[in-house]
């Protein structure tokens, strides 16, 4: 074949190919001696609906090529986003990749893995020449899927997919004469609004219990880490901009929410009614969360948690360990 | 070929295939009469690194099949996440898909579109039988890429990809005896912490200007929508849980941040110094944002904005229009 006139950069080619997002699959077959064989591949794609066909490519240099070349059947497993460890295991050579994995009953002899986003059990119909790879085309003789969010591979990294949102209607940015406008694209605005709307949803519970936001943070903190002194409590809650000071703590003690020790430095813990209150608030938060996740969709909720963690790492001012972004 | 023994459900098969995430491409070629032809396809994938080869599949029923069958060259455009309109345009039959599109100089005759995440200019090397589709394998004679986040297609919807995060270290959830634990997976916690850490980052600016959070919200609101009365201002800021009341407004007037009208019902607007202050705060917010996006990565920032909008829609308590999630 003609070579491109311009010098060709293989690593640049790989990077450019990485811009095409894919799912992650594990393709399995069984060797003549009955040994299970499998490897991670993202070169999968659909081909035909009638008859149902899919394809994937395998390097001619792959140690498992003879097995797949001889196999009449192979199974493609589209991995769920919790299965990136499995993807790594089947991407490495050597070791017994199937150790400890429960196989499920299959239509043919190819191993069938569990816990995937979707599975296609296939019978080889074509093997095509593809440069340094062989293209395997199979007829799908059976398939199933779950509701799991699929694992993605983009630009050499595992990723999560979340559907595109329509814009949030606002005429913000219309004015503020020329300066960088205030727009809904400001993360600070979106974070604040999302956070306040979440709080709004269970503010009623706080009101019923007569618990302020500051008291709420103290209850949540002491429910996790008991016996802190006033300085430690202030340090853990300072990032909220709400002062959890001796006066606030004294008020909570007076209302029986906190118990205080007689140490040289007073240490605070939840009283029984404080624990009950913290559980009540937490239960309300979980209820709000469940309702939101229901509306948002499990994939989007998983994606949002994932990104908020990225942001928290990126913006962590160096908080005490409980709230620290850690490493 | 043998038919599967179990009855085969085409729509179920489509749904299962949808669990394999893909990028979105537009493949173009030129007809014998010079007319540009193109269509949206997600059946693209890489095949070979040496020689560099990619493949995609086209339905035998496609009106453009004769053109692609006769074409020696075709270009694959991996779309960026801003190009979903372009994807829709090239997915529809009829109309002049290339109307108004600026084409860029290509190595061969196939049309080359602009603004994509990556592009591969190819020369046909194989056409393979694939059921109701033809599999086109091309040698890549030229390619390029941008830093744009690629558009995804998952489960029949356009999507964004964001890389998986490592967990945020916390021993929260260790205690709180048996009740649903307080964990970093709680959206309320993640939202609050991300929001507070963002605020923390430009709190200094607020302090320098001696502007409280309540005053900050009033400045931001009036910068966008001027001439509101106290009730309207309170309604727009109520969701923050911070009371923007007559007393707060009076204080801002006294400090020359606001101008008040002599209408029967007093209406408030930013004074010149109030506008200057709002711009100063906004500039600080933009600076914090820019630094965060730098650390977070543009794709992750785009994904986070996208998901926060989903959440804001899902949790909107019915706020006035400026802040309303709208439709």
UniProtKB/TrEMBL annotation, chains A, B:
Keyword flag Oxidoreductase: yes
Q: Which organism is it from?
A: Paraburkholderia unamae
Matching InterPro entries, A to Z? Flavin_Rdtase-like_dom, NADH-dep_flavin_reductase, Split_barrel_FMN-bd, WH-like_DNA-bd_sf, WH_DNA-bd_sf
MF GO annotations: monooxygenase activity
Give the UniProt keywords, A-Z. Monooxygenase, Oxidoreductase
What is the recorded name of this protein? 3-hydroxy-9,10-secoandrosta-1,3,5(10)-triene-9, 17-dione monooxygenase reductase component
Q: Where is the Flavin reductase like domain?
A: 17-160
Instruction: Fetch the Gene3D superfamilies from UniProt.
Output: Electron Transport, Fmn-binding Protein, Chain A (2.30.110.10), Winged helix-like DNA-binding domain superfamily/Winged helix DNA-binding domain (1.10.10.10)
Q: What does the sequence similarity comment in the record state about its family?
A: Belongs to the non-flavoprotein flavin reductase family.
